[in-house]
Structures are given as C-alpha cells and as structure tokens.
Queue: 2 jobs
Job 1
Amino acid sequence: MPKKKGGSTSTLIIRYGARAGEVAAVAARELAEGLAKMLGGGASAASDPALDARTILVSSGAEAPVGPNKMSDDGFQISRPGRDSIAITSGNERGLLHGAYDLMERVGARFVAGAPANFPEASRDALAKLKPYAVTPAFKRRAMASDIMTWNYTHADRLAQHLKFDREFIPWMARRGINGFEYIRHAHDTKQRIDELTALYIAYGVGVEYGGHVLQILMPREQFALHPEYFPAGKNGERSAKGNLCASNPDALRMVTDGALRYARDCPENELLHIWGADVREGAWCRCAQCKKLSPHLQYMTIVNAVGAALASAGSTPVAYLAYHDTLDPDRKLRPLPNVHFEWAPRERCYIHAIDDGDCAINPRYLESLKRYLEIFDGRGHVFEYYADAILFGGIGFATPTTIARDLRAYKGLGIDSICNLTFGAYSVLAYPLNLEAFVRGTRSSKFSASGLIAECAANRHPKAADAMGKAYRHVERAASMVLDYADVMCPYEMTTEHAAAKKPLIEKAFAQFEHAVKLANATHEKYGDALAGAEEELWSYSFEVLSGIGDYIRAHQEGGIVKHTLGQGAIAQIAGALEHIHNIEADRKGTWGAYDLEWLREMWLDGLRKNLGAFQIKMGKLL
Ligand SMILES: [Zn+2]
Ligand SMILES: [Zn+2]
C-alpha cells in the first residue's frame, strides 16, 4: 500500500458487513487496533451495508469488488481485490476473527500464552507484500476444557481472581483459533456455567459446551427415599444412592432425559452436551437382574441413547458418550444413535511417546481402542486430551510439544476433526505454555513441527533472556521425556514393581534437569527483574523437590522394615514441603488452582502416598 505524499502513512479503513453480528465487529475492531499499533498512521473500523456478513475489507485507497467467497466453517481466505486493499472472507464470522488475527501474525504480531500480546513495529510493505492465502483448520472443533469447580465460585474473591484471568484467556483463545470451551461439572457442583463469562465467549466466537460427570445430578439423590429402584443395585442386590442409575428402569431413564432437556432449554448457547457417569472406576453401574446382563458400556449407552433421542426430537445438540476408565475399551455391541458421539479420554496413556508410536509399550492399546470407537460410531468422535493437566502431572511444569505435534497428526490421520485439551486456568499457562502453544498450532495446521516453538515461546515470554529461557524450557522438555509414562505423576505406587524399578534412575535424571532449569530462571530473574522467570524458578524448584521425593518414595518401597518407613516418611515430608515454592508464586500467575485447589489436592495426594507405601499396584479412583 502506497505512502501518502510527505512521508506519512494513510489511515487504514477496516470495514465489515452491517448485517454481521458481534464477532465480525470484534474482528474489525481488533484488526484496526493491532494494525495501528504495528504500522502507525491510524486505523479505524466501520460497518458497511454493501459488504457481506462474512467479509472484512482493509483498504487505504481505491477499492475493488471482493471475489466470491468459497470458504466454509471457520476456514478463511486472505485475498487482494485491488492494489490498495486486502479482503478476509470466511465461512462464518468466527473465521473472520481468526483470519484477522492470522493476518496480524503474518505482519509480525505474536500471541503466546502467558506473554502479553506483542505488536512489534512493522513496515507498511509487510502488508503491501502479503500474498493471498487460505487456511482450513486441521480440526473443526478446537476446544479447551476445565473443571468448573476450579473457579472456586462459592468464594467471591477467588471467583474474581479467576474471572480476571478469563478476561485475558478468552481473547487469547480466539487469537489462536480456538473455537470451543467445555465446562466439566462434577456431582457436587451447583453450576454448569460461569454466567459472568458467557457473553465474552460469544463475542470472541468461542462456542460453549456443558455437562460433564452429570448423571448423578440428573438422577437426583433425594429420589432414593421414595424410589430406590431408580438407583444402581450392588453385587448383593441392594440398591444404593451412590453411583449412576438403574439403566433398566424406564422411569429413571425418563427422569434423566427430562433433566437433559431442561439443560438444553436453560442454556440455548450450548453446542454439545456431555453426559458422563460418576468419575470412578467400577462400582457405579447397576447389577440388578436386568442390568447384570449388560456391560457398563451397554448400560451407559442405553442412558446416553435415551438422552440423544430426547434431544434429537427437541431439535437440540448432539450428546457425548465418554470413553474413559471402565469404558475405554469399547463393547462391540454398542449401537449409538446418529446424534450420539463418543468422547475418548486416554488419561492413563504415555506422554513420552506419541499415541501412534509403535515403540511405546502403553499407547498401542489406546490407539486400538480409538480405532474401534471410530468404527462403532461411524467416525463421530471427539478426543479429550490432557496436555495441560495440572492434576495428572502433579502440578510439575512439564513440556511435551513433540509428542503433541505427532499426536495431532495421528488423530487427524484417523479422520478425527474434533479435539479438546484440559486446562487448569492460569496454572496451566504458567506450567504448560509450550503444550498450549503446540496444541493451538497443531489443531490449525497438521504440518506444524515442534522445532522453533520453544525458541519462539522463550523470546515472547522472556524478551531479554530468550536464549537462557529457551535452554531452561528444553531441560523441562527432557525431564518430561523421562517421567511421563506412568499416568498420575502423584501416584508412583500405581506402577508395577518392575516399572517402578526402571523408573527410579530416570526420575533422578529428570530432577537434575529441573536443577538446570531453576538456575537459568534464577539468573534471568536476578539479572533482568523478570517476574515470570521468578515464578518459573519457584515452579521448577517445586518440580525438582517433588520428583526427588518421588524418587526416594520408590526407593523406600524397594527397601524393607525400618529403612522403608524412614525413607518413605522422609520422601512424603519432602513432597509436602515442596508446596512452599508454590506459595511464593504471585496469586495471578498460579491462579485459583495453584492458590487453593492444589492445597486440598495435596492432602489426598499425601494420604495416597502414606497408604500405599508398602503396596504398589493398588488402583485408586481419579479425578478427570
Ligand atoms: Zn438395574
Ligand atoms: Zn511410551
């Protein structure tokens, strides 16, 4: 685009269709603000009755008509209708928003998790030389998920803290092309959404989804006094108010489907209803005379199909059936209705290797289960991943971008076009920024490679110490590649004795990696007053001490008598004491999860370690 005479740059006009909704208006406004910051000369956004609702036009002079719009869904195209104009066209308004941010990235903007949006000065030439291109995201649904309890919504101050984070995180998701957010409700939750945020998700084109472990809520426990027959029977035939419901009782099924229809009515913005059972292994399903003939899968399918049929006749959303724990390996007899999708959550998989890595001793079984689900559900499925799961990883700061890049290619290769990633608010941004970055890149482009990502994250999070912090992140990545093949990092006793014996030397190597990372973060913090590096120093010190405690705990298990007891208790005390480092991190950086949830979780964690000191291979229920 030409400069005006006299050297000043002309004002850019960003126009969007007058019939478009809020998302296109946000796209035009953010594009105007971002381009003005980078290019100078001013930019303004205005609506135009002559423009289609799925078009944004950037111009600095004469205009030419925009060509035909061939994009669908969130796909977007950047074209040049004339010498002085650039058009963004998309299948929907959300795609306009993603196209606007992508265009700014091509001019030099960077939106890295945990770093402020960066709009470096750029020449108008960067815009003038931009060649036309089109982007069709690799995955249609690219979502984040969170347990709603982590908002700590019963405490006004904690909720306010989380909302402050959300008001930055929701725009960040949009900037990186994320188009969905899944709330996970547990049986004790009194909410299915955070009302204060609904308008913000809608404005930024992030679709919201509700549900979670809600079967126990849809079958209200107070019904037990009047109708014990609605509830699951145990081995001895006795009904219990715990667990899910009796899948053979038509009145119980009706009660659940009525509840699901109420969800759909009360929350018209919901895009996918997640109907999951109690979050435990075994024991939640019914063994009455009728149900006993059905596997847990088939009992669960009966219920989800009943909900699916009710929602289909009400013209509502599809329903997700959770493949997880008891239901991870599919039952060939499953017959889902057309609006019932599976949601596959491979929580106990290995994160050292990609899901399709044949060299892994663990993942091939998971990949096989996924393939069978795809067959049974005729391809209708969603993957639920744990790349930023602070519980699974024990709050330790790990990084697995290479695994994520290959995973996403493998999922895409199987024909899966829907994936979400579990997050724990600000804590995930502090502890798993590389994984968030890998997820957003890989869900947009399957050509994405992990190399370069670390350097770029380090440069944006630590502009004054990019090299040192890039090295630190590589140490964290190496530590992850030594540890993450026994699922819950917090539960080393779930390993077989052989696996634990092989793991111990690797854990010792891993905590040495954290020692290096701590030194690099400390130097960066001291030299430049880099507060984020200070927080990472504490996080990695915590990670070092926890892993060192876990190493000792495994060693204690291999000993006997008083040595086992002394070493084991010492290991548990070290893990308990490591939390002091998290206390030293500022509230906004560690979020409500780091400030409050990790506290109660620690008690469960230490309890498990104490109880299992002498007994490896005991399985416990887990939180999703
Ligand atoms: Zn039953
Ligand atoms: Zn593996």
Job 2
Amino acid sequence: MDGKAKTMNHELVQERERELDTPGPVFPGRRSFLGMLLGIGAVSVGALLSVPLVRFALHPVLARTTETAWSDLGETEEFSSITSPAKRLITVEQRDGWRKMVSEKAVYVTRGANGQLRALSSICPHLGCSIPWNEGKGQFVCPCHVGAFAPDGALISGPPPRAMDELETRIEDGRLKVRYQYFRQLVPTKEVIA
Ligand code: FES
C-alpha cells in the first residue's frame, strides 16, 4: 500500500469513528417499555390497596359520631313491686372520631300512669346536673337549682324547661333493656343530640 492509499484509508477510518460518535435519534427500547408498564402496574396496585386504608382512616369521621346500643337493666321481675324509682347503673360506650369513651350512667326505672315500666335519664334537662331521687320528699330534686320532678319524671317546679327525659326501652327474654341517649338541655322539647 502506497502513502496516498494509506492516507485515504486513515481518513475513512476517522470518518467512520466520527459517525459512530454522533448520537442518533433515540427510540424507546423493549426494556424501557416494560419498565413503563411495570411503573403503571405498581401505581395502579398501590392506588387499589390504599382505598381500604383510606376508608378505614376516614370511617370515624364519616360515620355517626355516636352509636347507641341497648343496655341491660335487669329482670323485669325485679321491678314488679317497686314503689319508688329504682336506680340502675349502666355502661355506655361512645365513639367520637377515633376515640372510644366508656362511662357509667345512672338510669331510673319507674312506672308510668298505666303501670308500664319506663326508664328515665338522670341528666337534668336544665344544665345537665345529675338528679337524685329524694325518698323523703317523694320527688326527684336536682341539687344544682332545685328543679323538682315527680316519680314519673314530670316537671313539678324549678328552672328546668321540661320533664326528665324518658329513654327508649324494650323487654327481651324477660329482661328490661334501655337505649341510652343524650338530649339537648335548656330547650322545652326533647331533642336527641347523641
Ligand atoms: S341543672 Fe338541674 S335544676 Fe339546674
């Protein structure tokens, strides 16, 4: 090979190297397409899995803040001969958002005008004090502002705007059950608030 041919050959080699160094148009290869599919799949699965978690997290906020349950007051037989209101303590569970509160509430079992068993809330409808039964007076007498109520819960005197609040009852297998609820204070009509 003479000098001229060598030079031409060298130039051809350099040109070929320049061509190889020049970046051409980039097409997504099979790997990047699979990567994209995997990414979409992972995002979709993540979104699907997060739905129950989000629902679980929001449930206390979206659900009713308080669920009312039935509590047992005892055998109806126990109350067959009562002559004055009988106090019973029940355990009430309340749910407020994510918090669960358990408290003990006093309920009075008494008799209505036609002799049927009734349950009264001991929370005063005036400002919420707990009303005890006063055996000597034969009345419920609220210690806060001396509101007085008859044995069946009717308002006798004082600042309370209405009678004591009657709770829903039912008899199940010979046992008296009560559904405990809270009522708005300072209003003349009974309004459930929880
Ligand atoms: S809170 Fe009962 S009379 Fe005022």
